[in-house]
Amino acid sequence: MAVIKSPNIWNWPEVYEAENRAQDAHDALFTALREVADWAGKDVVDVGCGTGFHLPRFATDARSVLGVEPHQPLLPAATARVRNLPSVSVALGSAERLPLPDESVDVVHARTAYFFGAGCGPGIIEALRVLRPGGVLVVVDLDATASPYGDWMRADLPHYDPVAVERFFDAQGFDLRRVETLWRFDDRRSLREVLSIEFSGKIARRAIDSVPGLSFPVRYRLHTRRKPTGLINLR
């Protein structure tokens, strides 16, 4: 299966950097991640790592971290970001072809990479292949059932059905946790630029006009699936 283009970070990596800095101002998402997939002393792979923004965060107490990115032009920035972190490496690869042997990691983290649910089956199977027994696949996406971000997203993608996505992950044996947090920008320019790469013109203008300050609430979904530790292998 061909890699699905991620137009925001692929086309505007500098703007997406500002988006990453703005996300999760309350640190609620990383706190919840730690609770569902604690990576302390463990081996982590970040699927679709982009420019490697989250790799140093995992590296603070993981045993090893591998960032996997399918878009080769983003790899130099990711590599430069972790140059002084000996436990972190970056490699070209995709969710369906991870450059890892079987049962070699404890946490597979995929953030805003599995938005549409259906069609992600090969990536889920591949994640379960590289996970050790008891390891966790955690899929992080934006909860499009929550206002205001979800309203903008559904208006921009009228065929996107967030309830169907939840049903998909539920049918694949994932647990669901919702996390309320905040996007907070340094200035209005950054806010405008980020919303302009996330949404088409009309919806972006609507979103920008509806935010009076520098922040707005955003809800995420954490879909988690743990690999069995017994004799049954569900790969």
TrEMBL record:
It comes from the Bacteria. This is Methyltransferase type 11. Residues 45-139 form the Methyltransferase type domain. It comes from Rhodococcoides trifolii. Gene3D superfamilies: Vaccinia Virus protein VP39. Keywords: Methyltransferase, Transferase. It holds the Pfam family Methyltransf_11. SUPFAM superfamilies: S-adenosyl-L-methionine-dependent methyltransferases. GO terms for biological process: methylation. GO terms for molecular function: S-adenosylmethionine-dependent methyltransferase activity. CDD domains: AdoMet_MTases. InterPro entries: Methyltransf_11 (IPR013216), Methyltransf_Superfamily (IPR050508), SAM-dependent_MTases_sf (IPR029063).
